[in-house]
User: Fold this.
Amino acid sequence: MPAYDNPLVAELETVRTQALGELDTMSDLTDLDAWRIQYLGRRGALTQVMRGIGQLPPQQRPEVGQVSNDVKAILEAAFDNRVDVLKQKRLATTLAQEQLDVTLPGFPVSLGRLHPTTQILREITGIFADMGFQVYDSREVESDLYNFELLNIPPYHPARDMWDTFYINERVVLRTHTSPGQIRAMQAFHPDPIRVILPGMCYRYEQVTSRHEMMFTQVEGLAVGENITMADLKGVLENFARRLFGDNRRMRFRCSHFPFTEPSVEVDMDCFLCNGEGTGCSICKESGWLEILGAGMVHPQVLRNGGYDPAVYSGFAFGMGPERITMLKYGIDDIRLFFSNDLRFLEQFS
Assistant:
């Protein structure tokens, strides 16, 4: 029996004609989806007719099956085409209603900015470059030997209590200060005179407060040569302070102690928050002064560890915290802001 004489073929033709007729009237994507379910869904009209193919004699199934597949392909193609037509129509209507000018330029791309610490580091580097200092990069993961012992801090020395250290293992640490770079710089350049600064990150396992962070930057300075004195150190630091803060800020030197310098000093600037008065100020602890760096003449033993003869050479060293200096320069009252990733804070330094 030919396929075209089969009642299922006539039923398929009826479904095709009816479905295409209704499709042409569809003007909404919601109605269009309902049409898809009605005719092409799992329980749709076409599916119900196709289920009858299994009841046919085996010799008729291939031809009727081919007809049903052709009808299904026609309806699916017509559906996809109608979807495109309705989407284009909806877009045209939207553009007309919103009066969107597609030729207008897009929104500007937000550009990144230098972090305030990076900005102050570049300013510090520029000031010391004018005084003949070059930048020397040193490692952040250090051995106990360079971080402590070669800086005149043996294992039993009480000065180790000043640094709450992150230990990788018994002999490897995250550097607690940039001073290990002093030894590496001296070993790299001796016996020539040197003037270097060593910027980089330091790490200490300590409580985070408005004045202290467990991760911070430092800039180490080192000068080694013949006939270098404490007067040279003071002259360099006073010139640096005037260049960075201006001539109106006050600066003072206090006696101190560091195992790797002798004599040692700490350098303070008048507090920005209370103008040096100290009354009720939490930043300077009511002292009127805020420490910005430690310094001193390089200890003879440290010179020897670096390869220099202390009978011939002398030198000075200093270390400062750029975040603390940035706080002084811009009146910032909490060091935690530098690592909080708050754009409201960071965008002020664009």
User: Anything to note?
Assistant: Strands lie at 134-135, 141-143, 167-169, 172-174, 194-203, 215-225, 251-258, 261-270, 289-298, 314-320. The longest helix spans residues 61-98.
